[in-house]
Amino acid sequence: MMTSTTRRGRGSPGGSPLIAYLFLAPYLILFAMFVLLPALYGFWMSLHDWDFTFEGRPFVGLLNYTDLFDPASVQYQPFWRGMSNTAIFTVASVPFLVAVPLGLALLLNTVFPGRTFFRAVYFLPYVLGVAVIGVMWRYLLDGNFGLVNALFGLDIQWTTDQPWAWIALVGVTVWWTMGFNAIIYMVGLGDIPGYLYEAAALDGAGPWQRFIHVTLPGLRPVLIFILVTTILASANMFGQSYMITQGGPTESTMTAIMVITGVGFGQNRAGQAAAMSYMLALALAMVSVLNFWLMRDRDAAREARALKRQRRLAAKENAR
């Protein structure tokens, strides 16, 4: 007869919970060292007048935060101008970074000769560093001798005039990163059962109807992931603007990250820069929560609420 010790496998629920923590320990240690502790230390810095050039770093409380809402403060105008520029870039780039890779994924998900080659070609720019992308496109978009103007017979100052500077930054970013989002979409498309498309076709649904009623619902988790990560990445845009437009013209493309970097390392005011970074992080957290709320599965949420209501009613009946 099998004993209880034998019946319990190594992976059974009756095993020691320390084993799970042992496997989690490497990740938790790295997370604490490189994420949690720096975040706490950065918040501590934001509560001080932290200057790298001085030994004394007096505690100022929330003064660095309140200065960001005081129009008389030195940092008020640069910070909110950077936040405004960040919002402009995010609003302009995110729709293209969500829609264009989706169309590309649908195209590359079909069977045609050379499909693997084209998948690699579209993903290739993403493996290049931002410094390479920035230098390359700065020369290609140069208004005087750039290849873009020469090929299309244009006379546009892509890096020194608006709105062309924003158009250039958005276009370069979409070209550079759309391959990554397209790969994520293709993984999501592969998880949609084929019989759903067959059933929809038998019911007389056309390509557009199958896309609306089968593809998009099946891609809901992927869409949420891509939307949130794309918004976060766009809001943290730094390299493209720094390398291509250098924040110009007249600081119109200077993003919040560029302002924070300038204050922290250019002016040696790390406390104020840390406060700015936490304000930016708070804004992004609010946007992320809003995205999750807007894109939630309303039908599933409604069913969950109804189930909870039934359980509460059943519990009351049993109590009687």
General description of the model:
- With 320 residues, this protein is mainly alpha-helical.
- The protein has one domain (63-297): MetI-like fold.
- The chain is 70% helix and 0% strand.
- The protein has 15 helices and no strands.
- It has helices at 4-7, 18-46, 63-66, 76-108, 115-123, 130-140, 147-152, 164-190, 194-202, 207-218, 220-235, 239-245, 256-266, 270-294, 298-319.
- α8 packs antiparallel against α12.
- It starts with a helix and ends with a helix.
- Residues 1-12 have low confidence and may be disordered.
- This is ABC transporter permease.
- Pfam families: BPD_transp_1.
- It comes from Tessaracoccus lapidicaptus.
- It is found in: Cell membrane.
- Belongs to the binding-protein-dependent transport system permease family.
CATH class category label? Mainly Alpha
Low-confidence stretches: 1-12
The tally of strands reads: 0
Number of helices: 15
Tell me roughly what share of residues is in helical segments. Answer: over 70%
CATH topological fold name: MetI-like fold
Name of the CATH homologous superfamily: MetI-like
Biggest sheet descriptor = none
SSE ordering: HHHHHHHHHHHHHHH
Tell me the span between the first and last alpha carbons.
Answer: 46 Å
CATH architecture: Orthogonal Bundle
Percent range for β-strand residues: under 5%
> Structural class per helix/strand content?
mainly alpha
Mean pLDDT: 87
Total domain units: 1
Give Rg in angstroms: 26 Å
Tertiary shape:
globular
Could you give a short description of this structure?
By secondary structure, the protein is mainly α. The protein has helices at residues 4-7, 18-46, 63-66, 76-108, 115-123, 130-140, 147-152, 164-190, 194-202, 207-218, 220-235, 239-245, 256-266, 270-294, 298-319. Helix content is 70%, strand content 0%.
